[in-house]
Amino acid sequence: MASQTTQFKLNTGQQIPAVGFGTWQDAGEQEAAVTAALSAGYRHIDTARIYGTEPAVGKALAKSGIPRSELFIVTKLWNNSHHPDDVEAALDASLKDLGLDYLDLYLMHWPSAFKRGDALVPKDANGKTQTGDTDYVDTWKAMEKTLKSGKTKAIGISNFSKAEIERLIKESSVVPAAHQVELHPWLQQKDFMKFHDSKGIHVTQYSPFGNQNAIYGSDLGKLMDDPTLVEIGKKYGKNGAQVALAWGVNHGYSVIPKSKTPKRIADNLAGDFKLTSEELSRIDGIDKKIRFNDPSASFGYNFYADLDGKK
């Protein structure tokens, strides 16, 4: 059985396991997948309100019998609950579905607000997403209060630009503990990563395999088949996917691969292994500055304005 090894320290003093388990998509299969992940040795589980997978994650956690203190659970505030008056209720709903009293890390999923209400993606008569007018700094200040209540141990962000983070830090009192971003060997964002380091903000990589997900469709071939990754993997008896994860872990990032297959779930956890500085440099050299996830058009908000990979 694989077991969790590398952990990173957040600016709160908490330890976050380097390899987490992502639960985006396939809501009906997540209880079994999370159960398999916990059995394999994962202790860091990542979900979000919009994924619809919090109840399945909660059932798997309850069945596991693993002490709460050994788990690191992350979920995310969705865009329809950005108004300061809605944040605590949204958090409470997530906690209820997860069967938990507190979160280890609560993230603002996007800097953009949607119209307030029950609709997760509110649309107007023409099918266009209805945006809200809540400023993300005001949302963040409401999230800061959840630290005082003990319902969250740490708060963070996801999908922010550098300018948005700078403004958030300047206009609030809590520096984000973590930032979850699209990051992989084809989108390395080296300067942006140095910026996080300078501010003491931990980085979690989503889509650590780049365009492996069919939703991204690409004529580039798959990142995990990149010859550099495959060749380095041969030395360690690892595949390209595991080397892609190791690249992140060796740089100090946590990674949240997802899978429904027990073998692949276990294989991903084994992506936590040491690479030499020369091997890391070789992977650093395959950056294509390609971003696969940018919903700016559908969300009515210009994301990643000052970042690599912005089209």
Provide a quick synopsis of the model.
Helices cover 35% and strands 12% of the residues.
Write down how many β-strands occur, each being a DSSP E stretch of 2 or more residues: 10
Strand order of the largest sheet: 3-4-5-6-7-8-9-10
* Average pLDDT: 94
The level of helicity is 25-40%
> Helix count?
11
Describe the global form: globular
Report the β-strand fraction as a percent range: 5-15%
Query: What integer value in Å does the Rg equal?
Result: 19 Å
Low-pLDDT parts are none
Biggest β-sheet strands, sense, barrel? 8 strands, parallel
H and E order: EEEHEHEHEHEHEHEHHEHHH
What distance separates the N and C termini? 43 Å
Structural class: alpha/beta
Based on the model shown, name its key terms.
single chain; 311 residues; alpha/beta; two-stranded antiparallel ribbon; 11 helices; 35% helix
Task: Describe the structure in your own words.
The protein is α/β, with parallel strands linked by helices and 311 residues long. 35% of the residues lie in helices and 12% in strands. The protein has eleven helices and ten strands. The chain has an eight-stranded parallel sheet. Helix 5 links the parallel strand 7 and strand 8. Helix 1 crosses helix 9 and helix 2 packs across helix 3. The longest helix is centred in the middle third of the chain and has 14 residues. The termini are far apart. The model has no long low-confidence stretch (mean pLDDT 94).
